[in-house]
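Hi L., both proteins are below.
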Amino acid sequence: MTKNFFITTPIYYPSGKPHMGHAYSSILTDIIARFKRLEGYEVFFLTGTDEHGLKIQKSAEKDNKDPIDFCNEVSDVFRNLSNQLNLSNTDFIRTTEDRHKKVVEQLWGILSKNDQIYLSKYSGWYSISDEAYYAEDEIFEEDGKKKSITSGSEVEWMEEESYFFKLSSFEKKLLSFYEKNPDFVQPESRKNEVVSFIKQGLKDLSVSRTTFNWGISVPGHKKHIIYVWLDALVNYISASNYFNKDQHAPWPADIHIIGKDILRFHAVYWPAFLMAADLPLPKKIFSHGWILSGDEKMSKSKGNILNPIELINEYGTDEIRYYLAKEVVFGLDGKINKDNIEICINDLANNIGNLTQRVFALIDKYYESKMPNTSENYTQNSITIIEPKNFIKCLQNLEIHNYIKEINKYSSKINKYVNDNEPWNRKLNSDTNIKNILNTSLNSIKNIFILMHPIMPKKSEYFLNLLGLNTFSINNLKIDIPVGQVLTKPKILFKKY
């Protein structure tokens, strides 16, 4: 029976160029998706772009473009980013697609039928940059301007006719749900933040706008545009084709990966919308931190945005993926700078890179690049026996930095084994011993690259193909490379800086 796994990135708002935060969310989501495939799961991995709202309309006007033309161009940039980051997503959804619009209208109809929406008047503080509403105690004044405490974005006072969602009626339901599902939002600090926000009291949420027209119209009320977050969040079920019972993907999602700046939308509004429509909730929401430039969050207004493509062009896709996964604790803020990237890559080259080159050089020199056989009384060395459950546990707990730490501990153990046994020393070792040592070492290196595949897919596939492994899974950790297998010596795997 097929095991399914459904994972999503945030849906990106393409009002500007992608930055390191976008890359980080996507890379870490991809790592989880690839590991689940190693485990044998059928993975549905969704990413995409959120293309409606006043911010998009203003950006298009600034460029003297029609909003859809603007979105086509910027969405292509994000789609290309998926390729440049070597993502394995199975779908890329755009909220301007007909398949999405249809589902948003269906959901609005369900909410209306369930008496969860009513018409009134909105007055309050709104951030165009965040496409978010803020209460009086969530703003501060700076240089004569009102700003959001959370994001620092400027807010303005708005008054207009609006449809409202009865969010206030879900206060007790949401708190009860969190009590029964304590792992729904992770890490725990984020869950505590959400529970605290709910306990302060929820007000009904304005879910339509009349002051602009770039978005999905409320069915039967064309002057009203559906609130961009109600529109955007629905992408998760429109991509799964949920309302088509014969063809839909395995909703609910197993996990939404999001940044901490959009926690409230995913952990308060989204569950409430789904409860109101009697639809299943996602199983988990993981809210990671920011990738900081210096000590500050990256933003266009501060001019401190790091371009992920520039870093990839300089260091390589796999190397940047490895750095972000290893050096940033998933869930906390992390810093990125070139000095640290180069230190990280050098460590990788000195550990796994050098080990690989040494072992291959000896097999090439002594055994014509063929996998050496072992003696009849040879017992498999314990270092080749690797327990997948330790690595599976790290991924289940979303401790990706610890996953890499386990790989590096294993690699260090193999390095020590090679150094201690000196397979290059024919005075110390018989030919039989050298064969045993090299066979053990190469099977262990094979295990490293299988486990490293979710992190560094290009390098891992390249290396494993040289061993004759074109397909592989967790099960291959227990399967040795066939004796006599023709091997191809790899090029230098990791450049030193």
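That was the first. Here is the second:
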Amino acid sequence: MQNEAHDCVKPTEGKHVWESLDENGRQAVPAFCEQYREFLSVAKTERETVDTLVSFARVRGFSPLEERDQLKPGDRVFMVNRNKAVAMAVIGSELLEKGLNIVGSHVDVPRLDLKPRPLYEESGLALLKTHYYGGIKKYQWVAIPLALHGVVVKGDGQMISLVIGEKVSDPVFTIADLLPHLAKDQMEKKMSEAVSGEALNILVGGNPVVGQEAKERVKQAVLDHLAGNYGIVEEDFVSAELEAVPAWPAREVGFDRSMIGGYGQDDRVSVFTSLQAIVELENVQRTAIALFVDKEEIGSAGNTGMQSAFMVNFIAELTGHCLPQYSELVLRRVLANSRAISADVTAGTNPGYTDVMDKLNAPLLGRGLVISKYTGSGGKRGASDASAEFVSFVRQLFNKEGVVWQTGELGKVDQGGGGTIAYLMAEHGMDVLDCGVPLLGMHSPFEVASKGDVYMAYKGYKVFLGS
């Protein structure tokens, strides 16, 4: 995963990325996005994403912060939080008190989590019960092939990692839908009610156990398979984190291959592009941080989400490692003088549903990175609402460095909306702006992004971190 930035003709807002690039840029975009496609196909859980980030960071000269006594300009460090969040920093030549440049994204995506007691038998079939995670359209998760990813921590503390359903030779799993011949009542329901959360049960077995007595013989056969192949017993599900995700790789979309389609682009497109941005930085003035956090899709709660102390703890450690005397006052100055981008996707205009967008403020695929002064819903609820001065700073920076950008909102006022981690970063006094890639089919099992927009996200995050 390596790519060098290429200059392009200075764009105007809303110009198509492909028209704005020179020949070098047009060659760079497909190469960069092929690396992204490979990343998207492999990193399907938050743990897998963090493992990939850390492995790549180590190769590019980053080392664990806890292994360092002091830091100097040019040093590259990272810190991992419970294998579900990570922060990376390139130390700059300026004092930390003058502030940091931060790009924050999230590694979690909508999915189906197995319940603590998931396995049961019904009508001669074995199934796993799930609890959906994040905002999904439940009907989109039936009648598609699913893979199981995650970890199981056994009763003795041993951790077993599982990925079943991604190889061609693997079995896959699925949630069977109701045939249209018998779906009269289902078809008359609202779309939100046609498939209930409790009906998202995954089909995992059909043959009964042979040669032994059991009350639920198909379930017992599944348990025997798990014990024989993975050393897992039924009670181990209680201390497991197993996620059902679409069992397909990311693909190129369109005759011209101008788009990437795949699962989890919200928000792993920001994760990949900001990772690429920070590992390519050298000789920066302001210390640059790429932050990758968990739990955004369920409110950023928990000890790995943005509401946790992880970011502040990481910056406090940096401050203590860089300055001869650490104090709470210095830390507060570092935070308040920082500037940040909340790197998260937004809704691109879907040609089939243009009525949900305000056409004057609607992001379009292929028109570059989207600057959103605020997100939230209704009366900007849950937004940080960046200042005009900071929006101008980012706008000037992007124009100067040839980053194709556009402005946009997530739909019409009162149509709906959504939030990011921006308001949680802004609580520390720093300037924050939402900035990300527009997607079609956001939160679906197959989201679509323009390759040009993906490339401009990488370029925009890199120039911001290095500013």
